[in-house]
Amino acid sequence: MNIFVETHRDRTSAARLGLLTLGHGVVETPVFMPVGTAATVKGIFHRDVAAIGYNLILGNTYHLYLRPGEAVLDHFGGLHAFSSWQGNLLTDSGGFQVFSLPGLRKIEETGVAFQSHIDGNRHLFTPESVVETQRIIGSDIAMVLDVCTPPEITYKKAREAMELTHRWAQRALDHRDQLGERFTGKLFGIVQGNFYEDLRSESAAFFNEMAFDGIAIGGLSVGETKEEFSHYLAHTASRVTREKPRYVMGIGSPDYILEAVEQGIDMFDCVLATRMARNGSLFTRDGVITMKKAIHKFDRGPVEEGCPCLACTTYSRAYLHHLFKAGEMLAMRLAVMHNIYFYNTLMEKIRYSLEQGSFDTFYLENVEKLGQRI
Question: Residue 295 carries which DSSP code?
Fold first, then answer.
């Protein structure tokens, strides 16, 4: 059964509106997913995440597998009950985290052998074990194990990594089918191919024919230039079927999101919203402002006029500046809440502009200033 319905298509671009039906409710797309790496969106209660308007967040299989571990999650009947999250949950496979530990991992046909960054113990992720772990987590959307590669590797190595990703994807599907009704989530494949057009086209064609519930575009935002990102996003998106939900992994800068929406992408996630908040960088419709700068020391105004978050309706920029300079935990909590509000509002505005047929205008008015640093 197709879990995605396209409800509106933009007249001037590939952008679209859609409805994504998952185990814990329907999600309107395009959608941004806050990242809850270790079973929490850092600095904010799940109830507040839901109250802001989110019904889909992301967890990380690598971190959850290591801590609290499968035994704890299985004991509680999955992550929803363990963390008291009532909405939908997407988990990535851990492939990117393993990719980020080059000195501690070895990629083979069987899977990825790696050492825990916590205690140095050795573990093995296979396409089958990663699906099984996400079954225990109770993921509404589970991702396959893939090989994520850095820019500037050779064509030969890029092809080898892509072909291994394809073989792993088939094994993941086979294991899902073997689990039958015990696997209650939806499984997404991940297009790879590094920064080679023909490999990207080949990988997209491969996944278009596979029985996955959705397709992610991987291997972007891994250190490439902005120009490379834009080119390979457009190239890959134009070759991925529109019949299924399309997800660009790890994209969180608002200007990048706008660009990806224009290319017909439905789903986004990134740690940027919460990480930058904890470091004192807050998103506004005019760009990012840095609360630690002395310019805010006497500023009576809110972070952003019209924002309904607690930080903006209750406190001044001067107060947040003080909290950050003093190292108070409240600074990070208020900043995270603001940024999570900002992203939800941005996605609401994008969806409204698509509904009204004005996305092209909205894009032109916002794409440059959203990428500014003030």
Answer: G
The residue length of the chain stands at 374
Query: What 3-state DSSP class applies to 205?
Result: helix
Q: Return the bridge partners of 141, or none.
A: 90, 186
For residue 310, is pLDDT > 90? Answer: yes
Amino acid at 248: V
**DSSP state string for 152-193:** T--HHHHHHHHHHHHHHHHHHHHHHHHHGGG--SEEEEEE--
- Give the pLDDT score at 100: 78
Give the DSSP per-residue string, 188-203.
EEEE--TT-HHHHHHH
Q: Please give the Cα distance from 301 to 23 (Å, whole number).
A: 42
**Domain segments of the chain as ranges:** 34-270, 278-370
From 140, 146, 213, 269, the catalytic residue: 269
Q: Nearest CA to 357 among 92, 29, 9, 122?
A: 9
Q: Which pTM was predicted?
A: 0.97
Cβ contact 303:282 at 8 Å = yes
Active-site option among 48, 92, 146, 213? 92
**Number of Cβ atoms within 10 Å of the Cβ of 227:** 8
**Confidence check: pLDDT of 96 > 90:** no
**What distance, in Å, lies between the first and last C-alpha atoms of the chain?**
47
Is residue 269 flagged as an active site residue?
A: yes
Q: What are 228-238's pLDDT values in tens digits?
A: 999 999 999 99
Residues 6+ apart with CB under 8 A from 175: 127, 128, 131, 132
Yes or no: say if 79 and 51 are a contact pair by the CB < 8 Å rule: no
pLDDT tens per residue, range 153-170: 999 999 999 999 999 999
Could you say which of 3.30.70.120, 3.90.340.10, 3.10.180.10, 3.20.20.105 is the CATH number of the domain covering 34-270?
3.20.20.105
What is d(CA 107, CA 113) in angstroms, rounded to the nearest whole number? 6
Q: State the residue for tokens 């499968």.
A: 70
